[in-house]
Structures are given as structure tokens and as C-alpha cells.
Amino acid sequence: MVVKKDDRREPFDRAKIVAGLKRACEKRPVSMETIDEIASRIEILMTERGEREVPSSAIGEAVMNELHKTDQVAYVRFASVYRSFKDIDEFMHELQDLMSERKHSPASRSERKGGGAS
Predict the structure, then answer these.
(1) With left for phi above 0 and alpha for psi between -120 and 50, is residue 56 left, alpha or beta?
(2) In contact, 99 and 75? CB cutoff 8 Å
(3) How far is residue 72's CA from residue 97's CA, in Å, rounded to a whole number?
(4) Residue 20 and residue 64: Cα distance in Å, rounded?
(5) What residue ranges do the domains of the chain occupy?
(6) 10 Å Cβ neighbour count for 13?
(7) Residue ranges of the alpha helices (H) in 29-87?
(8) Could you give the CA distance from residue 73 to residue 34 in angstroms, rounded to a whole number?
(9) pLDDT tier at 105 (50, 70, 90 boundaries)?
(10) What mean pLDDT do residues 39-58 have?
(11) Global model pTM greater than 0.90
(12) Measured between alpha carbons, how far is 43 from 39 in angstroms, rounded to an integer?
């Protein structure tokens, strides 16, 4: 069971994860196969917790972690809805953190030199 923010409980629904991923990845170079793989990883992760009830926040964080690794634009799209940024400053702070991480990641440096996949 998934425990929502308002304490309602509903059955785990993989289709909701897929739908959220599809919205975030709309018009992005993310295949349906990748979306299905992400949904499967999240489903397994939630099952491995071994709990009868999982907070919806744990699912949302797992989706954000996966999108962060997969497509940063999709990540920002999902995060902006999931975190309900109150104003442009919060949104900009998230973007600045993302840009800072990107500057310091080894994969990012090799991509800028032309060594990464496109």
C-alpha cells in the first residue's frame, strides 16, 4: 500500500509511475524502454523495503533520483511539480545545484571534451 501525504492509502500502481515519467520525459530523448526500466527499478526498490506500507514521498524521491541520472530536463520538470516550488527563487536554486553538480562530475567533463555519448 502507498500512504499519501493526506494519510489516504491506495494500492501501489506502477502505471502511475510510468505516467509521471512519460509526462516528465515528453519530447525528451528518453525511450519508452528506459521509462519501463526506471519504473521496474522503482517497483523493485519499494518491494525490497520489506514494508507493507510505503510513503508516496519515498516513491517520488526514487523517481527524482532516477530522472536525475537519466535526463536532467525531465528531472527538473518532475521536481518542479513534485516539490511544488513556491517561487522562481526555489526553482533557480534547484537549477543552480544541478549545474554545479554537472560541472564537477567526471562524465560531464568528458562530454564537454567530446568523449561522451550523445
Answers:
(1) alpha
(2) no
(3) 12
(4) 11
(5) 2-84, 85-118
(6) 10
(7) 32-48, 56-70, 72-82
(8) 15
(9) low
(10) 94
(11) no
(12) 6
Element (H, E) at 18: helix 14-24
Place of cell 523495503: 49
For residue 55, the SS3 value is strand
Q: What is the pLDDT of residues 27-36, one digit of tens each?
A: 999 999 999 9
Grid coordinates representing 54 are: 510505503
Amino acid code (one letter) for 56: S
Q: Could you tell me which of 110, 117, 111, 94 has the C-alpha nearest to residue 29?
A: 117
Instruction: Check the CA dihedral 94-100-104-110 and report its sign.
Output: positive
Instruction: Render the burial of 25-64: b for 16+ CB within 10 Å, e for the rest.
Output: beeeebeeeebeebbeebeeebeeeeeeebebebbbebbb
Nine-digit cell string for 31 = 525511450
C-alpha cell at 42: 522503482
